[in-house]
Design a protein that fits this description.
This protein has 14 helices and twelve strands. It is α/β, with parallel strands linked by helices and 349 residues long. The strands form two sheets. The protein has a six-stranded mixed beta sheet, sandwiched between helices. A six-stranded mixed beta sheet has the order 8-10-9-7-11-12. It starts with a strand and ends with a helix.
């Protein structure tokens, strides 16, 4: 079955998705009867394309790898999309599924939320790795999708390509979640690991994280806990059927944690981790992000470097922990593919 695909944003994740669709084309067709034809792409910096007959992914990726703009794909021919705003491209596109892959703004969730709404209002399914809309407007967007008999899926928003939502739809279906705890930010986990293992102070560990590309020039979203906060809010609203906002949860980052505290915990047989957690108490969701001393027997204590992990406390299975990379070009691109395949499975039932 062929699906026409539109991309909003063609940075690292978008290009990762395109590489996967190209590399796995035959396997996806043979094993899953899934064929993807990319028909529109718009990117704030790289330009736009609107080609209902389909875009040659190999040619496009070669252009992008050469540092050229998407608009150069047409080699001087008239390009209607270059003169359209993103919302106009979404409306005019003949895509069946849109992948919203623009940058995350956790304060406003824009422009991503407007993009998602426009796609759903014009009959397109949406998959996204953007935490902003998922954290601030998940309930509203899910309702809008359902009202239009469409799907809105967000696998890549929490653990990148490591399955969370897809896992519960299938492998862990039927369980009730009592509590969720996890390490949801690779940058802070890397910093804490270096402070303990290599006896580094916070400033030097942060500098190393920046040099390796784990931390941004402005690391506030990571080290002050905002990134982990957005993710635990998403998990609360999806799995615990809440409708909370980031402002409803307590947040503390790692900047006040000293090397001495970390080494003292090590001496006592404990390890500091930035833990995001959520559970229901008396019908109310209690969510938080804070540095916690974990006993080394806790599976989360063993997660080192830039890895992420989640522990689910389940009524039937007890505690189940999953771990994997929380970021990456191919990893996050893969999360988008898994959501597209999930939509495909629903539509061919």
């Amino acid at each position: 079955m062929e699906y026409r695909i539109g991309l909003i944003g063609c940075g690292t994740v978008g290009q990762g998705l395109l590489e996967i669709l190209l590399r796995k084309r035959e396997q996806l067709k043979e094993k899953f009867d899934f064929e993807a034809k990319v028909v529109s792409i718009c990117d704030k910096l790289k330009g736009a394309l609107l080609l209902p007959e389909g875009i040659d992914l190999e040619k496009l990726l070669h252009l992008l790898e050469s540092g050229k703009k998407i608009s150069e794909y047409l080699e001087g021919e008239s390009n209607e999309a270059e003169h359209l705003e993103t919302l106009e491209i979404i409306e005019k596109s003949n895509a069946d599924i849109f992948a919203e892959l623009t940058y995350t703004d956790i304060k406003t969730a824009e422009p991503a939320t407007s993009h998602i709404k426009k796609a759903l209002q014009t009959g397109k399914h949406v998959v996204t790795s953007n935490k902003g809309p998922a954290a601030l407007y998940y309930t509203e967007l899910k309702k809008l999708a359902q009202e239009n008999n469409l799907f809105f899926r967000i696998e890549g928003t929490v653990l990148s390509g490591t399955p969370v939502f897809n896992l519960f739809e299938h492998g862990l279906a039927g369980n009730t979640i009592k509590e969720i705890k996890g390490i949801l930010n690779g940058t802070t986990n890397f910093i804490l690991s270096k402070m303990e293992e290599d006896n580094m102070d916070y400033e030097n560990a942060l500098k190393l994280a920046q040099e390796l590309g784990y931390a941004e020039a402005d690391p506030t979203a990571d080290v002050e806990g905002f990134d982990a906060l957005a993710k635990i809010v998403i998990l609360s609203n999806v799995f615990l059927e809440g409708d909370i906002q980031p402002s409803d949860a307590e947040r503390e980052g790692i900047t006040s944690l000293s090397k001495e505290e970390i080494l003292a915990a090590k001496e006592d047989g404990f390890r500091y981790k930035l833990i995001a957690s959520t559970k229901k108490e008396n019908g109310r969701i209690v969510a938080s992000v804070s540095p916690q001393r974990l006993p080394l027997s806790d599976p989360l204590a063993g997660i080192m470097g830039a890895n992420n992990a989640l522990t689910f406390d389940l009524d039937l299975l007890g505690k189940v922990t999953i771990q994997g990379p929380g970021a990456g070009k191919i990893e996050t691109g893969y999360s988008i593919l898994t959501d597209m395949l999930a939509i495909h499975r629903q539509l061919v039932k």
